[in-house]
Amino acid sequence: MKKKSRFKIVDLLIGILFVVLICFCAYILQPEIKRTQQVWAELRRLKWQKALEETEIAELEHDIANMELPEYIEKAAREELGLVRPDEKVYIFEESN
After folding, report:
1. Is residue 87 part of a domain?
2. What is the pLDDT of residues 35-78, one digit of tens each?
3. Is residue 97 part of a domain?
């Protein structure tokens, strides 16, 4: 009978020790887990920023490829420089307040 009691006490002590060990590990690893979550959040943000930058690069490459086209040159002259063709009439409207 004493052997059964002794094994129960040893099993109980091992169980308690295991729980304490798990709690200790969780306490020690808590800052590392938080840091890991921050790193993953930063990684997601950087991937999103990379996608935006790649989109902008594609648009700029498209613009570069079309720079020699007459339509592009005319559009740039009109929008960026405010130029008009000699045979066109320009109407300027006053803004009403």
Report:
1. no
2. 999 999 999 999 999 999 999 999 999 989 988 898 888 888 88
3. no
CA–CA separation, 24 and 18 (whole Å)? 10
Phi then psi for residue 69, to 5 deg, are -70, 140
50 by DSSP, 3-state: which? helix
Tell me what percent of the chain is helix, strand and coil, each rounded to the nearest 5. 80, 0, 20
- Dist CA 89 CA 79 (whole Å): 16
Query: Residue 15 has which token pair?
Result: 């169980």
Q: How many domains does the chain have?
A: 1
End-to-end CA distance of the chain: 101
pLDDT of residue 1: 47
DSSP state of 69: S
pTM beyond cutoff 0.70: no
Evaluate whether 72 touches 66 at the Cβ level (below 8 Å).
yes
Using only the alpha carbons of the chain, give its radius of gyration.
Answer: 36
